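User: Teach me something about this protein's shape.
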Amino acid sequence: MLLGSVLVLLVLGGAGPASAHAALGSTDPEDGAVLGRAPAHVTLTFSESVGLRDDSFRVLDPGGHRLHTGEAGRAEGRSDTARVALPGKLGEGTYTVAWRVVSADSHPVSGAFTFSVGKPSQAAVPVDSGPTEDPLTATLHKIARYLSYLAAALLIGAAAFVALCRPPDPAPLRRPLVAAWWTLLVATLALLVLRAPYEAGTGPSAALDPAALRDTLTTRPGALLLTRLGLLLPVALYFARAARAVRVDRVDRGDRRRGGRPLAAAVGVVLAVGLALTWAAGEHASAGIQVPVAMTSSVLHLLATAVWFGGLVALLVTLRAPRPSPDPAGVVARFSRTAFAAVTVLVVTGVYQSWRGLGSWQALTGSTYGRLLLAKVVLVAVLLAAAAVSRRWTAALVTAPVAVREPDRVPERIPQPAGGPPPETPKPPPPPDPDADPGPDTDPGPGTGPGDDGPGPALRRGLYRSVLVEAVVAAVVLGVTTVLTATPPGRSAEEAARAAVPAGGVLPASVTTIPFEVGASGRGTVQITLDPGRTGDNAVQAVVFGPDGSLAAVPELRLSFTLPDKDLGPIEAELVDRGGYWSANTVTLPLPGTWTMKATVRVSEVDQVSETRRIRVER
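Assistant: First, the predicted structure itself:
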């Protein structure tokens, strides 16, 4: 099953997946643009809807001083945009825009870019996107997220173990359930108060700000955490009522209470689904394509994880109980079937979510998300190997004779006539034959020998050790999953890398500066921006600067592209004078490779100069 899931994952990895973790698609003004006049707004467009903060924009003037801007809003009411109004009069020079928003999957993303009015500053302010994350806040946030996953898995899984595996005495599970409930409560409160500093990239002391907490409660992540807290109260009441029902059943084994069990089970399922939704609605499944299917898959994945991992812990507690269960084989067999169903759901939903998040074959090894996913697959393989060993111990315990697997069971009393039968003289056991084959039923199994207490307890101890290994590996898998949910999926990382720019400018393949001679007056330059600088349709913007660095008006500017290796071109860019700069809406470069870009500048009615540069166009 694991091998099949990996093969399906690799085959489907090349399909078009969803994008989570918002990636910046475009900016207006464009990064590195030189404008003839100041813009009225700065607009960002992302790959998915984003949440805005009070400090989503910081605009710095050429001297590095922060400008007073309007409140961050939307462009044309679109949730995948962020816009801020600029002051009415901007002086000449280079301006820096630092931005920070929250993607639909609740993770903050940030960046920065520059644009110039008139001409670039001689010494532009270094691009600073502001704080990315505070190490202490990030560490506390990750710990709280892991503990919340762990506690929810134990809470839901232990309850499912009681309902599906029907241990005769569930009393030993009460303490783990209470511990899990309190852990989930404390972890959720920690996530709620840490939300504001986590989004802002500041230290944990900012969590004490009441205004920040109030703002958090108005955001979707804050509302989901508040919903989770609200669900914990009915969960506690549900467990309290279930505990009373168990005590009544132990006193009265009749059918008096059995009529309410289907309703109680339905309520438990609703509460479990509600808790799982508070995670699914705030993570990768909530953004990108096929959101309803992805949300359903995420909820099923979380519930299956809880049933398996929480059930393992509940089984350990049951096997370790001071008073052994009178029917360990039945409980273990029922859990084995339940765990197999949970693993099946995990594999199916895991393959779908991996297909949705990877983006490409290369992302398996070329992205952090892919490498974490491979590590998780390896750990799951170890986990399934341990589960296979546990199933062998389970089979041995189930097929063992009753006297072996349940040595503490009291024999049933058989009514005898008055006086009873005459006492029988016990027969001495026959001497052991050293050459005889003990057979499968008399094999004491691991852990038995001189001084041991028989094969029954030995079978339980062997199963206990195997299940303990499963639980430890499952806890590690849960930790990797926690990191995975906070990591941009492969497709998002690729989109972000394409949109990312080095400090102070755009990608080298997108901007080219070509100097040219202006007769006796000196040397001028033409700055050409090719956006996005890849195959397909590109927008072209060109600005001509005179010998003194100021904008220069020229009668004509022509631009052409040639790909010598393929004997392709020249492809002319139809540049239009926009009053201070030249632009063409579209020039199509059909193939990747090293293109020759030729710029022809007419400096007077009779004089012109042509210069060429080689640029790299990627696919």
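Now, about its shape. Residues 57 and 99 are 5 Å apart (CA to CA). The chain has 13 helices and 17 strands. If you'd like, I can walk through any region in more detail.
User: That's plenty for now, thanks!
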